[in-house]
Specification:
alpha/beta, four-stranded parallel β-sheet, 4 strands
């Protein structure tokens, strides 16, 4: 589609912005060779898996990321989409670009085109985008687990408000797992 306005039109050209997301940001972390599985904690996570939102919170170095990576790799009932949050994700466009990239990267996901087209047409922080994205996730027909690791890095009010909006409209097919330091 041509983003430029028709000759003589007062309409401004449409700017389409896409953010490239490094694959490492949306990949479930690898487990080190000396990783010690915590079956009891994975069982607790499985028991709470039916919850709409789960919070895993502990001090730095306590193994939150590795526990969840192990759980994601061994719990095959639900596909896991992973986003490693960093300070740059305080820009809502970057944050939601990463979430869309994570959700559309697993094998049973549908073509990412509708979700990416929606993002290209709207500001990522805009509640209409969040609602369209949530509707697209509802249409997946299969539950997914969305892990947002290092949530303590999100401090910008715009990024936090976009996440609050997503939580309000989050479809029943999405289990949100928020991981943060104390």
């Amino acid at each position: 589609r041509d983003p430029s306005p028709a000759p003589g039109s007062d309409r401004q050209p449409e700017l389409i912005v896409m953010v490239l997301v490094p694959r490492v940001k949306t990949t479930v972390p690898r487990l080190p060779p000396d990783f010690v599985p915590r079956a009891d904690l994975c069982a607790d996570l499985d028991a709470g898996a039916a919850a709409d939102i789960a919070l895993v919170c502990a001090p730095a170095g306590y193994g939150k990321t590795l526990l969840l990576a192990h759980w994601a790799r061994t719990s095959t009932a639900v596909d896991t989409s992973w986003v490693d949050i960093d300070r740059g994700d305080n820009d809502p466009l970057r944050l939601w670009s990463a979430v869309v990239a994570a959700v559309t990267s697993y094998p049973s996901a549908p073509s990412p085109d509708p979700l990416l087209d929606s993002m290209a047409r709207r500001q990522a922080a805009h509640s209409d985008f969040i609602a369209e994205f949530a509707a697209g996730l509802q249409d997946l027909g299969k539950p997914i687990r969305l892990v947002l690791d290092d949530m303590q890095e999100l401090v910008d009010p715009r990024a936090l408000e976009s996440l609050r909006t997503f939580i309000r409209v989050k479809p029943t097919t999405v289990r949100l797992v928020l991981v943060s330091r104390l």
